[in-house]
Every structure is written in C-alpha cells, then in structure tokens.
Amino acid sequence: MSCQRLKDWIEERYDVEEMKRLARHKLVPVHQYEIWYYTGGIAMFLFVLQFITGMVLSFYYIPYFEHANKSIIEIVTKLNMGWFFRSIHHWGAQLAIMVLFIHAFSTLLLKSYRKPRELLWISGFILLAISIFFGLSGYFLLWDERAFAAVRVATGGAGNLPVIGGFIKAFLRGGIDVTGETLIRFYAFHVSVLPIITLALIGIHVLLVQYHGMSVPLSLEKKPQKQIPFFPNLFYKDLIIWLLVLGIVVSLATLLPPEIGKMADPLAPAPENIKPEWYFLFLFQTLKLFPGDILGLNGETIAIILISCGILFFFLIPFFDRRSSRGEKSVLFTWIGVFYTLYFIVMTIIGFVS
Amino acid sequence: MKIAYSLVTRRTFLNTLFGGWLVAFCGGSLYALLKFAFPTLGKEPDFVVLKTTDFINIPPNSVKPFAWGGKLGLFFKKENGSTYALKGVCTHMECNITYKPEDKKFYCACHKGWFDDNGKNIDGPPPKPLEFFEITTEGEKLIVAKKGIKVELPKA
Ligand code: FES
Fold this sequence. Notes:
The structure holds two protein chains of two kinds. Chain A has helices at 3-13, 16-25, 38-58, 68-78, 82-110, 118-140, 145-158, 165-173, 180-212, 218-221, 230-255, 281-288, 299-320, 322-325, 331-353, and strands at residues 27-30, 226-229, 293-294, 297-298. Chain A is mainly α. In chain A, the strands form two sheets. Chain A has a two-stranded antiparallel ribbon with strand order 1-2. Chain A has a two-stranded antiparallel ribbon with strand order 3-4. In chain A, a hairpin with a 2-residue loop joins strand 3 (293-294) and strand 4. In chain B, the strands form two sheets. Chain B has a six-stranded antiparallel β-sheet. The relative contact order of chain B is 0.14. Chain B has two helices and ten strands; from the N terminus they run αβαβββββββββ. Chain B has helices spanning 10-37, 52-55, and strands at residues 47-51, 62-68, 71-77, 83-87, 98-100, 105-108, 113-116, 121-123, 132-138, 141-145. By secondary structure, chain B is an alpha+beta fold. In chain B, strand 6 and strand 7 form a beta hairpin. The interface between A and B is medium-sized, with 32 and 31 residues. Bound molecules: FE2/S2 (inorganic) cluster. FE2/S2 (inorganic) cluster binds next to loops of chain B.
C-alpha cells in the first residue's frame, strides 16, 4: 500500500482535515515569561521516559526481600544496557521531580492558578504529591540499608499524624513494621497504583490546559497580546527542549550512575550520615527546628501538624487568593509565593550542606 | 389497582431507586476493597526465648543483637558486668540504634539521637527513653520479656 493510499484510507474514515484545521488554529500567547511554560512539557516528556524505562526494568526486578537488592545488581551488571536503563530511570526521576517543583513554583509566582484554573492547580498539586510518593517507593525498591531506614522514618513520621496516623502507617507498611510485606506493597504502588492515577491526572491536566488555554500573567493581561500558532512553531520549540533534556538525562546517567547500597537488614543499625532524598530535605530540616517536646506535648506531632497545615494552605491557595481571582493585583499572595519558594530552596540547600 | 395521585413522580422514584442502587454498590465495593487492602496486623511479641550460652558470655561494655519479633533487640552487658535486654529501636522515628562502647551510650544515626546506658534519652530528638525488658534464665533458656508480663513456657 502506497503512502497515498494509506492516507486516503484514513481520510475516508476520519476527518483529518478538521483536526489539521484545529491544530493550525491553536494559538498560544508569547511574552517574556514564556520560558516557564516549557516546564510542564518537560515534565511530561520525563514521565514518558520514566514509563518506558520502568516497564523494561520491571521485566527483571524481583519484589521479594531476599532477591530485590540482588536483582538490581544483576540488572546493572549482567544485562545488556541494564546499567543504562536503571541509571536513566534514576536520573529521570530526579529531574522529573525537580521540574515539577519548578513548574509548581512558577505557576504560583505567575498566579496562573487563578480563576478559572483552580482545578488545574489542584490536579497539578496531586501530581506533584504522587511523584514524590513515586520517588519514595522507587527508592525503597532498592532494598538497601539507606532505603530501609528512609522508609521506616517516612512511614513512622506519617504515623505521627493525629487520629489517622496509625491507620496510614499500617496501610503503607502492610503490617506493624517495615518488612518484606512493605516491599511488595511499595512495588504494587510503584508499578500499578501510582502509574494509573498519574495517567488519569495527566490526561485531565492536559485537557484542562486545552480547555482554558494558556494563562497570561496578570500584569500582561491588559496589554495587547502577541500570539503564535502552536503547530508547528511552539511544537518545534518543545521538541528542541526535550532533546536537550534527553541529552542531560543521558549524560547524567552515563557519568553518574547511582550507587546501590548494602542489602537491607532489619536488625542492623541505621547507617551513619543518613539523609533523606533531596526532595524531602526541606521537611527534614523543618522537623529539626522543633525540639523533642513542647510544653509536655510531643514536638514531632506538633511539627507534623504545622507542616501539614502549611501544605494544605499551599494546596488551597487559589481559593484564598480572592484578589487575583477577580483579576486584581494581589501583592500579599506574591509575597506568600515568594516565601514558599524561598523556604523550599533555602531549606533544601541547608539540608544539603549540613 | 390504580392510584389517582402519587407522592412522587415516576421519574423521582426511578432516580432514587437507581441512585440508591449505585451508592450502595459503590460504597459496598469500596469498603470491601479497603478492608482487603488493609493488612492484618501482627503484634509485637510479649517475650522471646533465646539460648543463654549465646548471650551471657559477651564481653563487658558490648551488645549483641537478637530478633524481637521483626524488630531489633539488644542484649547489653554494662562495664560492671550487669546484663540487660532492650528494644534497639529509637523512640523518635523507629530507626535501629547502635551502641557506642567508647561513649558508653546508644546512638541513633537517623537524626543524631543519644541515649545513656540506662536508656535515658539525653540528646537529640528522641522524646522517650528506650524500652528495657526483663530477663530471666531457666537453665539453657534465656527469656526476654516485656516488663510486667507473666511468662508461661509450655512444659516440655
Ligand atoms: S529516628 Fe532516632 S533520632 Fe530520629
């Protein structure tokens, strides 16, 4: 079948012309903040990369405590390109989470969450939370000493939440303690529960962007706007950036393959100088600010309640920021946004160097 | 029999019926699924039985681990020769602790918590002292039990 006949075949059945017209008519605004708009696309690209590498890794990984650590060592030492795919999966995850944070904070500072885009913010927030859980569960699959201690602390920390804490902890651990059961559970989260939720949410998120169109920052909204067609102008720009990102991931994966620690042993002491993954450092540092007990109450619990409130407020910002939802300048929330961003960056850096 | 008028329209009746059906079905399924997904919780043991010879002869100022259920237990001999058993799990966020013979203290690497050799939390975030157990020996058997538990061994 020649190309032309294939084209005819499809065109006879589907209204390709109409789709082409749609693509041609989709315009996107251009302005000086445009650069931040690529972060969403980059995140999506990295997700695709994660899905693909994750699928092939799952062919060989064994989610059973006696074999988990060894099976990863086999993947990186014995299989064709195994080290490469594992390394890509690792670095893709790191970058994806980083890009998501940048995406979230730029949305916050440009106030693109404002009416009518509240649902976009909410779906994005949940995606970020899920990605972090992706990170934690993937990290645990290594089943090395560090991962073991990290998950013990993370699930133990969740257990400090009042009322529902114990329930969450037992649910995540699959028992009263972190064991091989927990490993299977985290594997299930990592390869089935989280991916399916992620796919659904990305679908909703992207559809909503199409529905609302790209947001234009408040300060530029009133000025005359320049627009360019999405296809092919912006699409090509996206492709260029994705190619760059792919280059970065591959370079990192090749030059800095992640290490695999000693197999976890539930009876071994926690390893020295243990630190959580970088995206938990800001929480870790915040917890450190609180003493063990405050006025006879458990300081940990208080800290965790306060942190939860901070995160909840962040989640609900579109509903608190009334002024920008009316299209007015909202200085207070600019400061709040700057505060959140700086807090995250500074605490992460302190956690990193200390 | 024909009723002249009804309190609800046929539409409302059907909507309620199908709505109720859906709610009951979804609610029931969700409940069952969650029930299934929630693990059956084990319990920490009340006591464990170890072999005396494995533990009693460790050098002074040192510890030897044993399994307290799935958790870490430590058999501990102080410098003066007195012996103890304790749960080797930090009271802060449940990391395993380690004994530092140089300092004669217990250390938790997760958030730099310290306990003295009586298990008292002396530095760092841990909010509570370590949990010590009671030890009794019965010939070959070394019985480590939670405080205040009456141990009844099956008669062999
Ligand atoms: S878990 Fe031991 S100090 Fe935090």
